[in-house]
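REVIEWER CHECKLIST
Item 1: Sequence provided? yes
Item 2: Single chain? yes
Item 3: Sequence as submitted:
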Amino acid sequence: MKNIWLSNLDYQINKIKRINEAAHTKPDDDEEMPEDDEEMPEDDEEEGPESKLNDRQKMMYEHYEHVVEAYGKFNQSAKANGSHYAPAAKNPFQKNGMVCGNCVYFVGGGGCEIVSGKIEPMAICKLWIIPQELIKE
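Item 4: Structure as written out by the authors:
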């Protein structure tokens, strides 16, 4: 039996490797370069919380995005399709910065890119991806 999740993971790993290789290759000698007086196009710099993620977190971010594209948002339950959402009143990790409001998926106004329903900024779920700099020990 083929493991689809691992196949997709291999695909994502190879995709990231190709992107990294392309970003670090030098242009061919016969490729036209802008003249000195021409403005060089700026690199597309990542903006938003995703730019502060480490490589593992970036891969997780992409993976969850693909899962949601294929199957829809996770619900808030503790079942197979659930995010194990814990409302703010039940989140024991608030003092550590592990809250939905710090997660890259959080959408201001009480939403989430990957979990359905109303999301409290001080709540938490098992799908969080929070930049290390926002996590307090």
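Item 5: Key structural point noted by reviewer: The CA atoms of residues 38 and 79 lie 57 Å apart.
Item 6: Recommendation: ____
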